[in-house]
UniProtKB/TrEMBL annotation, chain A:
GO terms for cellular component: cytoplasmic vesicle; GPI-anchor transamidase complex. The keyword Thylakoid does not apply. GO terms for biological process: attachment of GPI anchor to protein; neuron apoptotic process; neuron differentiation. GO terms for molecular function: GPI anchor binding. InterPro entries: PIG-T. The chain crosses the membrane at residues 205-224. Residues 187-205 have a biased composition (Basic residues). This is Phosphatidylinositol glycan anchor biosynthesis class T. It comes from the Eukaryota. Residues 54-156, 168-207 are annotated as: Disordered. PANTHER family: GPI TRANSAMIDASE COMPONENT PIG-T, GPI TRANSAMIDASE COMPONENT PIG-T-RELATED. It holds the Pfam family Gpi16.
Automatic annotation (TrEMBL), chain B:
This is Phosphatidylinositol glycan anchor biosynthesis class S. The gene is PIGS. Pathway: Glycolipid biosynthesis; glycosylphosphatidylinositol-anchor biosynthesis. GO terms for biological process: attachment of GPI anchor to protein; GPI anchor biosynthetic process. It is found in: Endoplasmic reticulum membrane. It is a multi-pass membrane protein.
């Protein structure tokens, strides 16, 4: 099933440890014996919440799907053009002689973990139960009404306790405290801790055990004083920031990031008192044993080719990937329950995640936070490309913010503006991180991000000037008092060596220079917490003006981008083509491609071809899991080396399956979505990057775990595909019934007649028609009849 | 016909042939009739059952009779009770010498169909030497503590110690003392009748009263007959989630800290440990910022404070509740306790009752939902004090109110206690043993009523909609629920409170599982017009010839019956 080949020298660079802190490097290099007996290749640690999209010249926006859902809210006016851009290259790819790895994989035995989950509980029962117990908000007002009656006679309603009787059990402070269990929730439970334990373990098992004991002692000692002054010290912090970046095409991307960090261990049942961290998510993490959760809801498509690398990427629709704790015994059940609960929290159709769209990637998604191991059986990944994102998803997302949308940067999140845009993506990332540099304890981080792209070129009469008010129809007036950092960054990096092209007002509090994704960037920073900012004016309305019209003829092309389309004609077979571009002038780098294809497109792995510069490109790692009808999708993961300045074309043929007639959606002619494929790569950087302190750097930068100065991590998503399946005539069953019944009735009728009718020979009395005619004529002639 | 034959012969031959043809024709017609009849028989005997069998929905048998019986089943609550006469307290008019047994029954009628009988099985006896010694102490508290090891500690049982009328154990003016556990000290009161009247009052306080049972069965009581308080108690459930929320609408001016963790461990946990027998509890807390009440308080010039009048309180909760967050991870009902620190522009804020007097605790509760307390922050001495103002919440004061509200929501109030009774405070546990019994009695009765309602409506639903598939596991859950509820009723009539409560809990679980089984929804939509549209193309062409030939046969037999009479 899994074939690992010897990496080419260029791929040795893949042995990175791309964690967001240098502490985790040791995880990366564990030798795995290759099935071919050659030198083993290590586990690839591909990090990244980073989602990226690739532009396609002809069809940019994924089509808005018409989903039968409860919402009556107005959907955003999305681009309705279909991404089906058949480029006429319907040349069937023949068998590839060298692709033995791919050919071998379907025949390989199916390992035990492919067993399908049995979904015991449907989401319907969830909602029914909840609805029954607490039907609506008005319930609270109703029971109050009877209570109002006896308010004066009955002291129970307006409560005044009989003080004398209450006092004893409430004021006896000392004794219950003395009897309080000595095991405080803050005392660390027996937890094998990340790399400390791991390092020791590598040296020797005996020493490892001792080290773990020492570590536990250390932990207890460290936690002791922490517990004493736990009440005073703030253990959670909120940092918020907004990044405004003008895109090469004249659009403006605004990225909000809200990071809630909590110095507490959200393990099962240990913590139940929440301050800044939202209770709903905290309980979810604790109850279901979630180690990491990444949920993104996206409307529109990020056009990487024209917009450059986004700070945060997500595929169109809903994407959810979760790492569970090793303590979770039934991962599939927890995954099902989790998607149902998240569906309720975010008002999204995540409850449609089931075994037919869930995959377990082996190499593409690695934990972003602290992790003891990367056993990918604890990972679940699902994409719902059909999901439509709208206000009903934004409102619960905003509710998770400590300040809501009442203060701080979140004031700008006005739904009617956010959905009047070319691209909208909101995400929630939960992960455990190191509490400090020594990393002896775990903190939990909740990162809420929202990216939106406004098109000002077309709506602003050809001018590319913008301001906060133009974008959001609001300005910033005050800060969230709970935020420990609140900043607005404006990307004013000079393009094409021309400086002073643009002008921002009011003057920024400072200017920050950083290297983000291999590019040197300059940011104008507005620190909302600095008292200077609101002194001069009551509100902050950041404005950007171009000094002279910018010629947009030369747009920088990103180093890595991709596009995907369906080729072929007819309704029987087709071909999925993926083009991956490496525009780096002299460096080659490998990329991991993850394809998830629904079962009703039957992939033929023997038709898989990978061609670069006219030559066969042999993937050094292939993991293929064939689909099972109505149970499991296809999963194809490959590690492909991209030579410098090249286009790699990956094609695979498929056959369209016939569905049962009840399996078609209400609009079957719309087509069926195939989720975006995922490209993960370490892209070599043109500019050298320096190692920076993750905690201090801006949030959008700290999300990218850069391994060293020479490369940066990129995760790209291609376009989702829309494939037409042969659609039957849906009145057919009734027609068939009618036709069959008619045939049966005719047969039966003649048979019945044969059996029940009496037949007897009848004398020919008057002869045939000719004779009768002749007789009539003879009568006229006066001749006797025949 | 044949040429050359004589005409008479030809005629004869013709007649013979006609007769033969007639006979053959008749035989043929008879065969046709038999064929038609056998078609009809096959269609009726084979076709119809086959069609019926292949299209029917699977419906496992349910105990409909037992479910019907649940509604009418009389519930008898039996309280085993020991009446122990201390030295010098035996009334003169005892009917028999001690020890003896007696039974008192009381009927609590809820509505026309349901009635609950309570039955006190009293064992009268005199004290043992140990009990004598225990009663010889100075105060009632000490006596209670000393008597505890000597009592029957089964749930639901009571022990009454009768002390002489002149005993100094009880303070002046107090006739009964209810201890922390399951015992009480009662003054003799002269005659047996007076003593029994007093005993009845004490037992009602300690076990259940007509009103507490009626409150438990509030679903069945007709509207208007029930006091508003009866709807205050939480519905019985297998678990509850308690959420403490601190609402800080003005984080710019106030930084509010509360040591909720310590307070929960110190005040709430002991109570919940005791209540863990009744249900599972989970406690959590959160702080919500910018969460405002839905009502703008009125400014009162006299006291220079803001007032929230009683009639506006119902509008307070809804806007707040939108922020509270759902309990997505469990299905248990949530009890919300909100501590509201009013914004600086609205403080101090006081709640007024109906008469306009400020409520001393500045708190109110909403039935079956939770409670809200307004916590005013003292204005700083100097107006120039730097904002935000740091506030440390006095958790003892807050928890005192919240715990009292918690007791109220569980239906444990001391309001029905007559004034000459003295109740011992339950101490750190927050709950006396007999209060736990009180809760168990009410919850058991309520569970039984809930199960019978659930099962009855399930049976009615399944009866009404014939398309619903009843799977075997649903049926087995229904059977289990019926069996459990019957055993609960039996255990109640035997006086085993704990066993009855456990059985009633199982019954609730099973009945809910059966009622909400997703398989019940599968064939719900299968309308008749579609059925006809599918069946008619087949059935009509098949049925018409059969019916027509049957009609023809009937007509012919009728004719043949008439013909012989005509011939004669």
């Amino acid at each position: 099933m899994i074939t690992m080949l010897k990496p080419s020298p260029g791929e040795q660079e893949m042995l990175w440890a791309p964690w967001d802190s240098h502490h985790r490097r040791c995880l990366a290099a564990a030798a795995v014996p290759s099935p071919r007996g050659g030198p083993g290749l290590a586990v690839w640690e591909l990090p990244g919440v980073l989602q990226r999209r690739q532009a396609l010249p002809c069809g940019e926006q994924p089509r808005e799907s018409r989903r039968p859902r409860r919402s009556g809210a107005a959907k955003s006016p999305g681009d309705r053009r279909s991404p089906r851009s058949v480029l006429g290259t319907a040349r069937p790819a023949g068998n590839h002689p060298n692709c033995d790895g791919a050919r071998a994989s379907p025949a390989a035995p199916i390992s035990a973990w492919q067993k399908e989950p049995s979904e015991s509980r449907s989401s319907a029962s969830h909602t029914t139960r909840a609805g029954r117990d607490h039907p609506c908000g008005s319930v609270t007002a109703l029971p109050l009404a009877p209570g109002l009656g006896p308010a004066q006679a009955q002291p129970g309603w307006l409560f005044s306790p009989r003080g004398s009787r209450l006092a004893p059990f409430c004021s006896s402070r000392d004794s219950p405290a003395a009897r309080a269990p000595t095991a405080s929730p803050w005392r660390p439970r027996k937890r094998r801790h990340c790399w400390r334990g791991r390092k020791r373990k590598r040296r020797g098992a005996g020493r490892g055990g001792m080290a773990a004991a020492v570590l536990l002692l250390l932990l207890a000692a460290a936690a002791g004083p922490g517990r004493a002054d736990a009440g005073r010290e703030r253990r959670d912090a909120l940092r918020e920031e907004l990044l405004l970046s003008p895109l090469p095409t004249g659009d403006v991307a605004a990225t909000f990031q809200f990071r809630t960090r909590w110095d507490a261990d959200l393990q099962r049942g240990a913590v139940s008192h929440y301050r800044l961290f939202p209770k709903a998510l905290g309980r979810l993490v604790a109850a279901l044993g979630v180690r990491e959760l990444h949920l993104a809801l996206t409307q529109g498509f990020w056009r990487t080719r024209y917009w450059g690398q986004p700070p945060l990427q997500a595929p169109a629709g809903a994407e959810l990937w979760v790492w569970f704790q090793p303590t979770v015994t039934d991962v599939d059940k927890a995954w099902k329950e989790l998607s149902n609960i998240l569906s309720g929290i975010f008002c999204a159709s995540l409850n449609f995640i089931d075994s037919t769209n869930t995959v377990i990637p082996t190499a593409s998604f690695k934990p972003l936070g602290l992790a003891n191991g990367t056993d990918h059986h604890l990972l679940r990944y699902a994409v719902l490309p059909r999901e439509v994102v709208c206000t009903e998803n934004l409102t619960p997302w905003k509710k998770l913010l400590p300040c809501g949308s009442k203060a701080g940067l979140a004031v700008l999140l006005k739904a009617e503006r956010l959905f009047h845009s070319s691209y909208h993506s909101q995400a929630v990332h939960i992960r455990p991180i190191c509490r400090d540099a020594s990393c002896l304890a775990v903190s939990w981080e909740l990162r809420q991000t929202l990216t939106v792209v406004f098109d000002f070129f077309s709506s602003g009469q050809g001018k590319k000037d913008w301001s906060l008010f133009k974008m959001f129809s609001r300005t910033l007036t005050d800060t969230c008092p709970l935020a420990s950092q609140s900043k607005v960054y404006v990307d004013i990096s000079p393009k094409n060596k021309e400086k002073e092209l643009l002008e921002v007002s009011p003057p920024p509090t400072s200017v920050h220079e950083a290297i983000v994704q291999g590019e040197k960037k300059t940011y104008a920073v507005y620190d909302l917490l600095s008292p200077l900012l609101f002194n001069t004016s009551r509100s902050l309305n950041v404005q950007l003006k171009w000094k002279r019209p910018q010629d947009s003829s030369e747009m920088p092309i990103p180093t890595l981008h991709a596009q995907r389309y369906v080729a072929g004609y007819g309704l029987q077979t087709g071909e999925i083509c993926t083009l991956i571009y490496n525009t780096h002038p002299y460096r080659a780098f490998p990329v991991i491609l993850l394809e998830t294809v629904p079962w009703y497109l039957r992939l033929y792995v023997h038709t898989l071809t990978i061609i670069t510069k006219g030559k066969e490109n042999k993937p050094s790692y292939i993991h293929y899991q064939p689909a099972q009808d109505r149970r499991r999708p296809h999963l194809l993961e490959m590690l492909i080396q991209l030579p410098a300045n090249s286009v790699t074309k990956i094609t695979i043929q498929f056959e369209r399956a016939l569905l049962k007639w009840t399996e078609y959606p209400p609009d079957p002619n719309h087509g069926f979505y195939v989720g975006s494929s995922v490209l993960s790569a370490l892209v070599p950087s043109v500019t050298a990057m320096k190692d920076m302190d993750v905690e201090q750097s801006p949030l959008f930068a700290s999300l990218f775990p850069s391994s060293d100065g020479s490369s940066y991590f990129v995760r790209l998503y291609t376009e989702p595909l829309l494939v037409n399946l042969p659609t039957p005539d849906f009145s057919m069953p009734y027609n068939v019934i009618c036709l069959t019944c008619t045939v049966v009735a005719v047969c039966y009728g003649s048979f019945y007649n044969l059996l029940t009718r009496t037949f007897h020979v009848e004398e020919p009395s008057r002869g045939g028609l000719a004779k009768r005619l002749a007789n009539v004529i003879r009568k006229f002639r006066g001749v006797p009849p025949l | 016909m044949a040429q050359g034959t004589p005409p008479w012969l030809g005629q004869e031959v013709k007649m013979v042939a006609a007769a033969a043809a007639m006979a053959a024709d008749e035989a043929e017609r008879a065969r046709g009739r038999r064929a038609a009849l056998s078609f009809a028989t096959i269609a009726v005997v084979l076709g119809l059952p086959l069609w019926w069998k292949t299209t029917e929905t699977y419906r496992a048998a349910l105990p409909y009779a037992d479910i019907d019986g649940l509604g009418q089943q009389p519930v008898q609550l039996v309280v085993p009770m020991a009446v122990v006469f201390g030295p010098g307290s035996v009334p003169g008019d005892l009917p028999r010498p001690l020890p003896f047994r007696d039974v008192q029954e009381m009927e609590i009628s809820v509505n026309l169909r349901t009635s609950v009988t309570s039955r006190y099985e009293m064992r009268y006896r005199s004290t043992t030497a140990q009990e004598d010694a225990a009663l010889a102490v100075a105060t009632a508290q000490e006596a209670d503590a000393a008597l505890y090891p000597l009592q029957d500690t089964t749930l639901g049982s009571l022990t009454m110690y009768v002390v002489p009328e002149t005993s100094s154990l009880l303070p002046q003016g107090i006739n009964a003392y209810v201890g922390k556990h399951r015992s009480a000290l009662v003054r003799a009161g002269g005659s047996l009748a007076a003593l029994q009247a007093r005993l009845r009052e004490v037992t009602q306080v300690m076990s259940f009263t007509a009103s507490s049972i009626a409150a438990a069965l509030s679903d069945r009581v007709p509207d208007g007959q029930l006091s508003p308080d009866a709807r205050r108690n939480l519905k019985s459930s297998l678990g509850y989630e308690i959420t403490f929320s601190l609402l800080n609408p003005d984080p710019k001016s106030h930084t509010v800290d509360w040591d909720i963790e310590g307070a929960v461990n110190r005040f709430v946990k002991p109570v919940l440990d005791k209540l863990s027998l009744v249900a599972n509890f989970s406690v959590d807390s959160q702080i919500l910022y910018y969460a405002v009440l839905g009502v703008t308080p009125r400014y009162d010039k006299e006291s220079s404070s803001f007032l929230l009048s009683a009639h506006s309180l119902p509008h307070v909760i809804n806007p707040v509740e939108a922020r509270l967050g759902s309990s997505a991870a469990s299905l248990y009902p949530v009890l919300n306790f909100l501590l509201y620190v009013p914004e600086r522009s609205h403080s101090p804020l006081y709640i007024q009752d109906k008469d306009g007097a400020p409520v001393s605790t500045n708190a109110f509760h909403s039935p079956r939902w939770g409670g809200i307390m307004v916590y005013n922050v003292e204005a700083p001495a100097s107006p120039q004090a730097s904002l935000p103002l740091h506030v440390d919440v006095d958790m003892a004061r807050v928890m005192e109110v919240f715990l009292a509200q918690l007791r109220l929501l569980f239906g444990l109030s001391w309001e029905e206690v007559p004034p000459e009774f003295l109740l011992e405070s339950p101490g750190n546990e927050g709950l006396a043993d007999w209060e736990l019994d009180h809760l168990l009695w009410a919850h058991t009765v309520e569970n039984i009523a809930t199960v019978s309602t659930t099962l009855t409506s399930l049976a009615q639903l399944l009866d009404k909609i014939g398309n619903i598939v009843i799977k075997d596991d649903v049926a087995s859950e229904v059977y289990r629920a019926v069996a459990s509820v019957q055993s609960a009723v039996t255990e109640l009539s035997l006086g085993h409170l704990l066993a009855a409560f456990q059985a009633s809990k199982e019954a609730v679980t099973s009945s809910e599982r059966a009622f909400f089984d997703p398989s019940l929804l599968h064939l719900l939509y299968f309308p008749d017009d579609q059925k006809f549209a599918i069946y008619i193309p087949l059935f009509l062409p098949m049925a018409v010839p059969i019916l027509l030939s049957l009609a023809k046969i009937v007509r012919e037999t009728r004719l043949r019956k008439k013909e012989p009479t005509k011939m004669d």
